[in-house]
Design goal:
The protein is mainly α. The protein has two domains: 74 residues, Rna Polymerase Sigma Factor, Chain: A (Orthogonal Bundle); 65 residues, Winged helix-like DNA-binding domain superfamily/Winged helix DNA-binding domain (Arc Repressor Mutant, subunit A), CATH 1.10.10.
């Protein structure tokens, strides 16, 4: 018995309600801007909704949507207009921040944003979302070898940009006290 359109819509709404936050985090880490990540999730969910009747397993919807997020972000980056950002005010230059955690975060974040989109997507999906190489390859629409190469090259670039002076501190709950 084929599912009814109403049942499909209810299942999709349940999916969106339960997984939107996780999908937003992935999109934010890939594009690096809050509003852009919201747009990316919205567009990806639209594409997922169109494909919803064709998805054989509702359990695969999140993986399908992550793939749409990764491929859509990559195609957005290819557009010439993507890199032009109008701003009302010029940002003030950042001064030194006394909090070591913020310094580490900012350095890692800047280095991650400087990576090409495919390398960033490979690192985010492999190391933040904790997908396997095969799952990452499926999400990115490429081979496992391409994922390994992109992730490896991206991590080398991150290490080169961060340099030997940046010491990663343990989280507060795991801090070592003298």
């Amino acid at each position: 018995m084929a599912p009814t359109p109403r049942r499909d819509t209810e299942e999709f709404c349940d999916f969106v309600t339960s997984r939107s936050a996780a999908l937003f985090r992935v999109a934010y880490l890939i594009v690096g801007e809050y509003q852009l990540a919201q747009d990316l999730v919205q567009e990806s969910l639209e594409k997922t909704y169109v494909a919803w009747p064709r998805l054989r397993e509702v359990a695969n919807a999140e993986a399908y949507t992550r793939r749409v997020i990764a491929t859509t972000a990559t195609s957005w980056r290819r557009r010439r207009s993507f890199h032009e950002r109008p701003v009302e005010y010029l940002p003030e230059p950042a001064g030194e921040d006394p909090a070591a955690g913020v310094v580490v975060h900012d350095a890692l974040w800047a280095a991650l944003l400087a990576l090409p989109p495919r390398q960033r997507a490979a690192i985010v999906l492999r190391h933040y979302v904790d997908l396997s190489e095969a799952e990452t390859a499926a999400a990115m629409g490429c081979s496992v070898g391409a994922v390994k190469s992109s992730a490896s090259t991206g991590l080398q670039k991150l290490r080169a940009r961060i340099g030997p002076d940046l010491v990663l501190l343990p989280p507060d709950d795991q801090a070592v006290t003298p």
